[in-house]
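so the lab meeting is tmrw and i was supposed to have these ready like two days ago... anyway. pasting both below. for each one the top line is the aa sequence and the line under it is the structure tokens. i havent really looked at them closely yet so no promises
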Amino acid sequence: MYTQKLHAGSKFPDITATTLTGEQLKLSDTGPDADWKLVVVYRGKHCPLCTKYLNQLEGYQDKLISLGVETIAVSGDSREQLEQHLAKLNISFPITHGLSIEQMKTLGLYISNPRSPEETDHQFAEPGLFVVNEKGNIQVVDISNNPFVRPELEALVSGIAWIRNPENNYPIRGTYAD
């Protein structure tokens, strides 16, 4: 299967996902305390590495907010699966469910079939991470085809701090095209 990847510097797609309360959140929207968004796509409740990553990400929320970056997590899980997953999560940032196959494709994510019914009952996105800047453009993108490769959070947050520092005048990287 081939996937079409989103390019650094391009507009982040207009994608919404659903909270447990049924609220539809646009993944790239920010609130009054931030003008950038960190969008974390995780595999689902069946993935212990995703649970660990999301819980570790919670430890960086104060620093991210101080940098003007809000976080949201999303998966293709059902409402019920997200409810069950919350028992293993200790997070304060919004987490959503119901990412469709079409939305996964739009984001350029790798999509996997479950290995067995015990793993999960639906196809799911492999990890993806997008940092969306104040213009709605993709500043940082990381897409993996398995749960073992993800940005190390300390390096990610330090990198965002570097990028956001106006003294560094750091452009969006990876935009060369013939």
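ok protien two:
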Amino acid sequence: MKRASFVIDRDREDAHPLHRAVIDTDGLSRAAVLLWDGRRATPITLSWCDAPKSTVASVLDDLPLVKSHALSAGRDGTYAFVWQRSFQLEPSLMALVSDAAALPMAPVVFDADGSVAITLVGTHAALRDLVAEFGDRIDYTVTELTDYDGSRPVAGLTSRQRDALAAAVAVGFYDVPRTGTIADVAARLDCAESTASELVRKAQARVVRASIRRTAPGSCSGRC
């Protein structure tokens, strides 16, 4: 059994309604769908957004998809429990997944740059066939392919943050003693040093927080 993580580039007009809101809304740059149940007469989802409650409330109030919602402030953002008029997760992708022997894992992450990060679990053959179905219909990058061992992938890294970490490893930024600098990372990414530094810092913070959550007393590796 395999676990495959993808980053999918979306045109705005083809994006999930919440994803379009992330792309369009100032002060909101990422939303992660953490749990969902689309089988109910009134589907429900639990999501996290990197914005204050007032911004998230305004976004959800404007989405025709949303019937009602309850919000809770959390670390670095807002959690949203949403009752939907109809279930939508990532329509074009889910249409393909529904015909394959593969299951989506939470979270599904919508980013303001138009990308969607999603992880699927299934047999190697099923994932291979699914990627073949993607063909030219979906613009995607495979960011991880590994045996499924019950652990969870680090959620929410953008493709640019992943590139920054990969560049940092390649130039020796994490070697002991350190043999590479942020300037070297910036040169590999072809960006300013300040941009490279921000990308690396944000990616490191997300990786560390995810690691602490997985290993802290009372944490769980599956859906809590």
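from a quick look at the 2nd one: The radius of gyration is 18 Å. The beta strands are 2-9, 30-37, 44-49, 66-74, 77-84, 102-111, 115-122, 139-147. will dig more after coffe
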